[in-house]
Amino acid sequence: MNKISNYIVASLLIVFAGCGPSGKKQVEGDKTKTLPLEIERNHELIDILFPEGTEAEILGSGFEWTEGPLWVDSENMLLFSEIPTNTIHSWTEAEGMSVYLNPSGYTGDTDRGGEVGSNGLLLSPSGDLVLCQHGDRQMGRMTASLNSPTPEYETIVGEYKGMRFNSPNDAVYDSQGNLYFTDPPYGLEFNIDDPAKEIDFQGVYRYDTEGVLTLLLDSLTRPNGLAFLPAEQTLIIANSDPQKPHWYSYRLADQGKSLSDGKLFYDSSDALKKEKGLPDGLKVSKEGIIFATGPGGVWVFDALGMVIGRLKVGELTSNVALDADENFLYVTADSYVIRIPISKR
Using CA of residue 246, residue 120, residue 290, residue 22, what is the dihedral sign? Predict the structure, then answer.
């Protein structure tokens, strides 16, 4: 077991015991270019993961606002959402950048404003592309195969007690195939004050394998990114509210049908006074290291909420993805899509 594993296992044991858009024109990317990368080093683990000399490679630039990166290992392909243009783009080492789907989040016939495209992207247990569709206000599934995509979708779930969702934002499946997702108002044309808003809270939901939808939380002001810690006993949820720029942790109870023991995982209020950005998307490595976008860039936490370090690229960061072998951290950063190599030494 390596040094990272030794440290993370120890921290996880403690946890378990306690059980805006730039408006720039899109241009073709060039991964030989880099963004300046400043690494804030708070613990020796950050030196192992991102040693001196680590660079942030630009895979694509000039987008209006990037989100929802997803690594598709079977295709050696990165997908990500460009929300304002209602588009999903793909990137591969061999082919570079190209449009993958359009429309991606809004398929209506009537023009509307707001953030209409898809946001979070993920694969279902059967390998289908699942999308948090802002404009259509639903969790949707692409009906075409991944290697021959067409903009055709079916609804997984779009309502709570007969009321349309606000705009599903991010989602994750557990190992049993149950879908967890957040529903803030960012995809509504007039955000929280939109007259079309039907639900008077911003929810966190579970849609199980039997088709039962359960409201898990209605108390967070702006629930956003979410991810499980290893063993799926704890769920981390980002709250992208400038008044409460927090990450929270919750224990899963009743076989995942409810959440309990909600705690403040980390409060980024002090950082927000100095740097732009809010808690947004996050991913957890196999060893329990948390990569979470927030004020100033990508925060790197251990399972106890200790800040190992931060990756600052000088741009607002929205979300992250890991490839299957966790050799790279992919980051959607305002008009850029970048990747940062992860060391295994």
Answer: negative
Report the distance separating Cα 163 and Cα 96, nearest Å. Answer: 41
If residue 25 lies in a helix (H) or strand (E), which one and from where to where? none
Confidence band of 145 (pLDDT split at 50, 70, 90): confident
**pLDDT value, residue 314:** 96
Report the distance separating Cα 233 and Cα 304, nearest Å: 13
Mean local confidence (pLDDT), 119-139:
97
DSSP secondary structure code for residue 24 in this structure: P
Both tokens assigned to 285? 């490595």
Euclidean distance between CA atoms 276 and 343, whole angstroms? 28
Q: Which of 340, 343, 341, 342 is nearest to 35 (CA)?
A: 340
Which residue in 223, 226, 249 sits closest to 18, CA to CA? 249
The per-residue pLDDT for 150 is 74
> What residues have CB less than 8 Å from 215, skipping those under 6 apart?
160, 203, 204, 205
**What is the SS3 assignment for 308?**
strand
**Pairing outcome for strands 66-72 and 56-60:** unpaired
**Candidate CATH numbers 3.30.930.10, 3.30.70.60, 3.40.50.720, 2.120.10.30; the one for domain 3-341:** 2.120.10.30
Domain ranges of the chain: 3-341
CB 120 within 8 A of CB 80: no
Statement: residue 4 has pLDDT above 60: no
Q: Is the pTM of this model over 0.90?
A: yes
Give strand pairing partners of 310.
40, 299
Q: What is the mean pLDDT of residues 259-287?
A: 98
